[in-house]
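Dear colleagues,

As part of the handover before I leave the project, I'm documenting each prediction I ran so the next person doesn't have to rerun anything. This entry is a single chain, and its sequence is reproduced below.
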Amino acid sequence: MKYLFFDIECAGVFKNVAKICAFGYCLVDEQFHILEKEDLLINPQGHFHLTDRKGTQGLILPYAYSEFKKYPTFVQRKEKIYALLEDSDTLVVGHAVMNDVKYLNLESKRFSLPSFRFHFADTQFVYMNKIGDFTRQFGLETIATELGVEFTPHRAVDDAYATMKIAERMCAEEGCTFFQLLQKYEIQTGKIENYEITQNTSVAQERYKREKERLKEERERKRVEFHIFADREKRKRAKDGKLKNKTVCFSHAVELQTPVAKKLLSAAFSQAAVCTFRAEECDMYVYLDGEGGQRLQSVKDRNARIFTVEEFAVYLGVDA
């Protein structure tokens, strides 16, 4: 078994077009001995239009853009690229590899080439399984720093090499081959065929998704329970009190603290308050200490009166 670690840089990525300008790769054996390592520079047949993930700030690739017209086109490079990726004795590996596989898919369609056909693994996904954290993405530089791997970002061959070193370091820590690492964490490789792409999956990720969905449903159940309670209790609202003509709103996080939220809302109704679930309509906003977010910031920008749960309880003269 060989492993082909690869990375792609594009002159520009649009909705249905990815103009590849560099295909960097590092081919190794199971002991991570380098068999081939090369940066295949490609004439993207288009202008460079580089943006970050937000599509605003331009990225800078460590290449001389003016030189790219001298290099072979993707079609002229296709035999080499297809051979590398579709070798039956090779597992393809990348970091956040879905993007690169999509770029290959778009380029094959752009030039009416056959669909790529290969399985692939993702070092980012392996790392997430290894540390048991599926809550966020881990960039190549982040993991490289964590594992002590040095490289030049956005040079395709260096990114491919860094991806290989990250895989090597994880295998060294676990005392196994990369294939065994995939087996240990029950990772199913992704696949591209007939222009269709399936991503990497794992047993741990599926568990995380199920738990995330369960918690989401539980949060929704609690919010619905609180909203029903508020609709019922407002009928008991006093006609007079120190909160007369004042509209109170609770943060979503407070609503999930259902017993406390119910107690505070009942006390507010006893002081003639009006309840709203729209933060932009409130005069008073109640949130958990340490809570942030855009909703709270918008209330601050409107100069509405803001209370923590504890402060609002004191204000109303009840125990939180």
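The longest strand covers residues 2-13. DSSP finds eleven helices and 13 strands in the chain.

All the best with the project,
I.
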